[in-house]
Every structure is written in structure tokens, then in C-alpha cells.
Design brief:
Largest sheet: 8 strands, mixed
Distance between the termini: 69 Å
Number of strands: 15
Strand content: 25-35%
CATH superfamily of the largest domain: Metal-dependent hydrolases
CATH topology of the largest domain: TIM Barrel
CATH class of the largest domain: Alpha Beta
CATH architecture of the largest domain: Alpha-Beta Barrel
């Protein structure tokens, strides 16, 4: 028969062993992000949590995770979100550009049409060498973007050449980009879109809209499920709004058919506060928020991905919906990112730590219209594949 003293001794020994086991388990974590507000729309989490990482994957999300023996990242007072995915950027134009975006929290990106078939090998090489996950949309025009408008000469839209480039780089090229504005394609916009679909086959086509010759309903009629409309808040002529500022019914129907609508902030002719505000008041929020980032855009207008997200906080979108536009939704747009955009246990440990500051912040659209917001997101830290990315210079 066990005496009271023996029972107390055994219980104490058991508790000590459990403590040792718990400490041993905690020590197996490589990194613990402590004390942040975790917002993961894919997992339905918006709460104060710790995030533990081991072997390059999310190992646990709990209220308090012991970090014995693990590297820690203090995220108190900050947001901890899945690594940002920029579905419309030009980060593969030069080898060093993707690393700049990585420091801003961008752990995955799609270079949207920086090059056509003539120079696609260079863009693919840059995307493959990027530290973050990079994929590419090939420009329909073999020349890529040109000052005179690459699709004003439809001979540049060489279907066979573009298809051959895709076959050569199936692991990296995930779709086709076609710019349809009047100064790019002129009256050939519908022909250009038909050729883009011929090139893409089952792959997505991303169309650049804004000031097109053809009407938005005619353009949308040529899109298939999974295609992407970027620069969705560009102004007339032929925007997503009719002449009375109302959403075209075809725009709403296109979304129901599985067409994605993306912001594509950029610098010229793509984002006008009035269009965005009117569309948002009619309940037409973006599926994804992207930057259309270049090094020139970093100096003004675009700045970085968190700044572009902040513009939609200013326009009244809820924080969790804004975060979803740069994480969960972006991951769903392209199969190459289907395992990203979340902090669920077992997912790749790509994490962005953001600081949400209160104050008076100025935001500019593409027409130099300035509005002031009360909140702005700033990049604080990035974790890629479970490793903390060193801060830049």
C-alpha cells in the first residue's frame, strides 16, 4: 500500500519529469515568434498568439509557447501574418530586386510581364535565383514592354514563340500577361486577348486594363475561370464602372464565374481614389492587393507592399480583409503558391511581421491625389523557410 509520503514523492517526480519533457520539446523549436497579434485569414485566426517553427515549417500556434533553447523574435505590439505574396510585381527585372521585396515581408512574388519570349530566359533566371519564391507571367509581346506600345504592332504577339518559351520553363512560367490599354494595344485589344488565351491554354491570363478602346463587358466576355483583371480601379474610358459610376453587371458576373480582380497599384494610370471609393461603396472589394512594384515605384507612390495594403485601410476595408488580399487570396490565385499564405501547422514557415502605426499618413493615387489615413503598415521582420531574414543595411 502506498503511503501518503510515497504518493507525494511520486507525484513530485512525475511533475519534474513532465517539466523536463516539456523543456526538451520546447528546445526542439528552431524559432519562436513571441507575443504578436496573429492574423491568418486562411486559418480563421485573429488573436494574440505565439508561433513556433521547426524544420522550416509551422509547428505550433498557441497562447504561450516556451522557447527554451530556441531563437526568439519579439513581436509584442506587432502583427504576425503569413508571408506576403505579391501577384503583380516586376521584381525579377534585376537579380537584386527580389531581395529588396523580401525585406518588406514579400516571401512570394509573380513577375507580371516584365519580358516576352525574346528575353524571358533572363527573367526566369532571376526569378529562380531569388531568395523568395518567384514565378513569372510571360508578356504576350515577344519584345516585352516597349515605349511605343508593344501590341500596337500585332506581329509582336507571336503565339508560337510564346508557347515555346512556356514549354521551356514550365516550372517557372505560370501564365500570360497582356496589356490592353489604348496606348499599348490600340484597337487590337480584343485580338490581343484572344491571342493571349491561345498562348495560355489552361494557364491563367492576367490582363492590364484601364483606358481601353473596347468596353469592359466585351473584354470580360473573353476571360475564363482563373484569369486575372489587374489595375481594377483604373479610371475611364472603359473602367469597371459605367458612365454613371455604377459597377457593370458583367463585372459582378465575372467574379461569380471565377475571374480574379487585382489592384496592381503601380504609378501611371492604374489607381484612382474615386473609382476605388465608388466600387468599394458598392461592395466590390479587391480579391488581391498587389504593388506593380519597380525600383522607381519604391521611391514614390508604391513604396512597398505594406504601404499598398495600408491604402485600403484608409479606404475603409477591415484589417483582416486587407491582410487576406496579400496572403490567403493571393495564394489561391496561382497553384504555385497553394501551400503558402497561411500559418497553419505544417505549412511552410514564411512569415511577415508588420507594425501597424497610428498617426497621420499621406497616400497618393496615380493621379497625384493625396489622401490622409490614420493607420499605416510598416515591415518589421521577415521569416523565410523558418529562418529570420537579416535586416537590410
Amino acid at each position: 500500500m502506498t503511503t501518503r509520503r510515497e504518493f507525494i514523492f511520486a507525484a513530485a517526480a512525475g511533475a519534474a519529469m513532465l517539466t523536463r519533457i516539456s523543456s526538451a520539446l520546447a528546445a526542439t523549436y528552431d524559432l519562436v515568434i513571441k507575443g504578436g497579434r496573429v492574423i491568418d485569414p486562411a486559418a480563421g485566426i485573429n488573436a494574440m498568439r505565439d508561433v513556433a517553427i521547426v524544420g522550416g515549417r509551422i509547428a505550433a500556434i498557441e497562447s504561450n509557447i516556451a522557447a527554451d533553447g530556441a531563437q526568439t523574435l519579439d513581436a509584442r505590439g506587432k502583427l504576425v501574418v503569413p508571408g506576403l505574396i505579391d501577384v503583380h510585381t516586376h521584381a525579377a527585372r534585376a537579380r537584386e530586386m527580389a531581395a529588396i521585396c523580401l525585406a518588406d515581408g514579400v516571401t512570394g512574388f509573380v513577375d507580371a510581364g516584365s519580358a516576352g519570349a525574346d528575353k524571358i530566359d533572363d527573367i526566369v533566371a532571376n526569378a529562380k535565383s531569388a531568395p523568395n519564391r518567384g514565378r513569372v507571367l510571360i508578356n504576350l509581346a515577344r519584345t516585352g514592354v516597349t515605349p511605343d506600345g508593344e501590341l500596337n504592332d500585332m506581329q509582336r504577339a507571336d503565339v508560337a514563340l510564346a508557347r515555346a518559351a512556356i514549354e521551356r520553363h514550365r516550372d517557372t512560367i505560370i501564365g500570360v500577361k497582356a496589356r490592353l490599354s489604348f496606348n499599348v494595344a490600340g484597337p487590337s485589344d480584343l485580338d490581343a486577348l484572344k491571342r493571349a488565351q491561345e498562348v495560355a491554354g489552361d494557364l491563367p491570363v492576367m490582363i492590364h486594363i484601364g483606358q481601353t478602346v473596347s468596353s469592359m463587358p466585351k473584354i470580360l466576355a473573353l476571360l475564363k475561370r482563373g484569369d486575372v483583371v489587374t489595375h481594377m480601379y483604373a479610371p475611364e474610358p472603359n473602367s469597371i464602372l459605367d458612365g454613371n459610376g455604377r459597377l457593370f453587371p458583367e463585372v459582378v458576373e465575372a467574379r461569380r464565374r471565377g475571374i480574379w480582380f487585382d489592384v496592381g497599384n503601380g504609378r501611371n494610370g492604374h489607381l484612382w481614389w474615386d473609382v476605388a471609393e465608388r466600387a468599394l461603396k458598392q461592395g466590390f472589394m479587391p480579391d488581391t492587393i498587389s504593388t506593380d512594384w519597380t525600383t522607381e515605384g519604391r521611391a514614390s507612390g508604391v513604396i512597398d507592399f505594406p504601404n499598398c495594403l495600408s491604402k485600403f485601410l484608409m479606404l475603409g476595408m477591415p484589417l483582416d480583409r486587407v491582410i487576406a488580399c496579400g496572403t490567403r487570396n493571393a495564394a489561391r490565385m496561382f497553384d504555385a503558391f497553394k501551400d503558402r499564405g497561411t500559418l497553419k501547422v505544417g505549412a511552410p514557415a514564411d512569415v511577415a511581421v508588420l507594425e501597424l502605426r497610428e498617426g497621420d499618413f499621406e497616400f497618393v493615387d496615380n493621379y497625384r491625389n493625396v489622401r490622409t489615413g490614420r493607420q499605416r503598415l510598416f515591415p518589421s521582420a521577415t521569416v523565410l523557410g523558418g529562418k529570420l531574414v537579416p535586416a537590410q543595411g
